[in-house]
Structure prediction request, 173 residues.
Amino acid sequence: MTLKRKWLVIAATGMSILIFILLTASIIQITALVISEQRGDEVLIIPMLNGREFDYQYIHSVQKTPVQEHFAAAPNNQLLLTSTTYQSFGVGLPFLPEEGDLEHIDGKYVLTGINREFDRVNIGFITLAHQELFYNGKSYNFRDYFKSGALLVVEVKRYSALGIMGEFIRGFL
Prediction:
């Protein structure tokens, strides 16, 4: 076999492998947490490769204490609010007995068993509220991505692995 023919075989093999990888990446579906402005592009796309749970934390406007809302990505691209953890100085946050079980643990109230499903969660972002999302040990502070006063939408979507790669590359351009 001539040297030119060997290079053609190597190039064809490499091209075949690349096409196989791209086809596979376009078929594989990945669940992602998506945060966008209500009238804008998807700004923050977080592939949920290591679990389906995440937390949304903010400073309560009346209590002036941190509140953590614990969510899970549920089937059919739904968000499932599973529990809420907060501190209270007597003003209280809304709670009805049919909304779950309320416990007082280490100076914080923990409301569990909520299991309320949402197609999306709408959030008004203001920097004073110190809003951030936690997923897989990483914090996503909203002030790093959005301007104060923005109206945000949090959703769960499915992307192909190729689509996630494209969004990742787009973020660097």
In short: The radius of gyration is 22 Å. Helices lie at 3-27, 161-172. The mean pLDDT is 86. The chain has one domain: 29-172.
